[in-house]
Amino acid sequence: LDRFSDADAFFIERSVPVACDTLDRVLKNSHHNHVDFIKLDTQGSELAILKGAGGTLSAGGVFGIKIELEFSGMYQEQPLFGEVDGFLRDQGFTLFDIKEPLGRKVRKTLAGAHTRGQVLWAHALYLRDLPGEAGLSGEWDAARAAQVIALAEVYGFADFALELVELFRQQAVLDATSQERICACLTSVREPSPERLFMREVRSAAGRFLSQRSPGMRRWVAKMLSSDRT
User: Fold this and answer.
1) Residue 61 exposed, middle or buried by CB count within 10 Å (0-12, 13-18, 19+)
2) How far is CA 3 from CA 8, 101, 118, in A?
3) Is the model's pTM score more than 0.90?
């Protein structure tokens, strides 16, 4: 980290001992017998926490995990992306998305300059690809099916959500009426929000400004304007 421009942000001021326990035991002692989703951002200790939740994960109830992953070493003895990804795949999870913006850092050689910087970390989304599995495991009802369909849609995967609807219909978890109503919601045309429309206008104005003053940036500006992201 000393090679990067903001290495002082990682200065250790003091160390505090903290008593820890596995996630499996914490959940058991708090009487939470079902978990739909796990979010982890613990600066390099995510894999240790996941291994301490082996019982929870193997039970098949967890549908999704959002987790911070590092691609290069930032913390002592930390596992990197490949190891965490392999563990999650062994547990039946599939990588669905790596969220932007990516965690980039610029080296001290050009501190403060506008340069790309190396990707050191990112937040990734893993989901259980239930339609791709041999069959549904565990107990399912309409309420639980609706939860995982909603999670898929919330994270922007309406296509996957429709696959889930079809799977639950085939397995008689959802009836025909529920399937029809959910599919109508997932496929309905949605008007852009005022915030998204505003960001489009800002992006277009910025693009025109940059194109006029820096012809070399026109390719990047065209790519930016063609994106629907805010």
Assistant:
1) middle
2) 11, 21, 11
3) no
